[in-house]
Amino acid sequence: VIRHYQKGEYVVRVDRVGSYELLGETIDDAAGEAFDKSAKLLGLPYPGGPHLARLAQGGDAQAFKLPRPLLHSGDLDFSFSGLKTAVLTQAKKLGAVISEKDKADLAASTQAAIVEVLVKKSLKALEQTGLKRLVVAGGVGANTLLREQLNAACSQRGIRVHYPELH
Fold first, then answer.
1. Which pLDDT does position 137 carry in this prediction?
2. Cα radius of gyration rounded to whole Å, the chain
3. pLDDT value at position 29?
4. CA distance 71 to 121
5. Contact at 8 Å (CB) between 96 and 127?
6. In Å, what is the CA distance from 97 to each residue of 21, 93, 122?
């Protein structure tokens, strides 16, 4: 289960009701916060995640090289404060008035970085536990790119993925 709470993401093994094991968690800033704050830097309204994702559809995810925090840490913890800082730094480099193309590219690059970390950590958790079912919950789970990449990766591995209703 990847569950986004107010304070961050948690990767939890659930064997049955009342039997839970925390496998990983947010150590500073959550993915949802990275989406929202990055969107704000691009002048998008709150909550920023859905707006950033829409803007990203017209952008190039390879346009800006952004960090993938803790991607190769060997654990299942998350950290997105460095990514937020990298987006801020890039936005400042682009100047006071950012072109629509640069906004779309930065949005796409940001979304790609967040999604890559979430997908890789999810797959690592499934690999470590041997489980064949993944439950994604919370607002970030509505992200279309995240769903597409999790669906593709899990389908290849014979893993079932469950999401909450989008509404």
1. 87
2. 16
3. 87
4. 7
5. no
6. 47, 10, 37
> What is the DSSP-derived secondary structure letter of residue 69?
T
Identify residue 20 by its one-letter amino acid code. Answer: Y
Note the pLDDT of residue 7. 60
- Over the chain (167 residues), what is each successive 10-residue block's mean pLDDT? 59 89 90 93 93 97 95 92 94 92 97 97 95 92 96 97 88
Tell the residue number behind the tokens 């990275």, with chain if given: 34
Inter-residue contact 137 to 4 (CB < 8 Å): yes
CA angle 156, 4, 18 (to 5 degrees): 85
CA nearest to 6, candidates 40, 36, 33? 33
pTM: 0.92
SS3 121: helix
What residues contact residue 111 under an 8 Å CB cut-off, 6+ apart? 35, 52, 53, 56, 61, 143, 145
